Amino acid sequence: MSTERIGGFEVEHLCGPEEIAYKDDELVVVCLVRDGEPWVRAFVEHYISLGAKHLVFLDNNSVDGTVSA
Questions:
Q1: Percent of the chain topping pLDDT 70
Q2: Are the C-beta atoms of 67 and 14 separated by less than 8 Å?
Q3: Which among 3, 22, 41, 62 is most buried, taking Cβ atoms within 10 Å?
Q4: Res. 1: pLDDT tops 80
Q5: Which helix (H) or strand (E) holds 40?
Q6: Cross-strand bridge partners of residue 10
Q7: pLDDT tens digits for 29-40?
Q8: How many Å is the maximal CA-CA distance in the chain?
């Protein structure tokens, strides 16, 4: 795990690749989430159905199972 400061906030990488290679025409979704476990699956399915190639979640200290979901 790595930690860095981005925009004055401490950001810790928890899982997945630390860098994502993507093309100019690919849809990349970035989502701030906290305690979103009940909605993660539907969210991912929705954006994948729209053609998203990458989904990045910025978790804001969830206390439910959001990160593991």
A1: 99
A2: yes
A3: 62
A4: no
A5: helix 37-49
A6: 5
A7: 999 999 999 999
A8: 35
Q: Which residue bears the tokens 């004055």?
A: 8
- Block residue for tokens 């994502």: 20
CA pair distance 37, 1, nearest whole angstrom: 22
- Phi/psi of residue 26, each to 5°? -95, 140
DSSP 44-61: HHHHHHTTEEEEEEEE--
Distance CA 4, CA 37 (A): 25
Give the Å distances, CA to CA, from 65 to 13, 27, 38, 60, 61. 17, 26, 9, 12, 11
Pairing, β 9-12 against β 27-33: unpaired
- CA dist 4 to 1, 19, 38, 68, Å? 10, 14, 29, 21
> Running DSSP on this structure, what letter comes out for residue 64?
S
